[in-house]
């Protein structure tokens, strides 16, 4: 198995785990909101995350490395936009991109 194939397999596995987390998020019974409108926005972000995670999983399964990297960026932006409203960024992690170290074993995808 080539290094590229190993990386795609690992990214696909990570995307599968992220898909489960995104699915759980989209089914929260008590999201951190104060209004019906806030609830709608929260679940719109959650659905957007599910969409991008499905794209990442598909791209990794089909060995589309550029598409995988682009989709990871879409996931990052979705997470950051949602966190701005529903989980103000902490000093430790103001941007989920600071967590890129987790992807380094998968080829350091930024």
Describe the structure.
The protein is elongated, with a radius of gyration of 15 Å. 65% of the residues lie in helices and 0% in strands. It is built from 3 helices and no strands.
Q: How many E-type strands? A: 0
* Large-scale geometry: elongated
Q: Could you tell me the mean pLDDT? A: 83
Number of discrete helical segments = 3
Instruction: Please outline the major beta sheet.
Output: none
Residue share in helices? Answer: 55-70%
Question: Can you give keywords for this protein?
Answer:
mainly alpha; disordered C terminus; elongated; 110 residues
What's the topology here?
Blueprint: H1 3-26, H2 36-61, H3 65-86
Q: What is this structure, in a nutshell?
A:
The protein has 110 residues and is mostly helical.
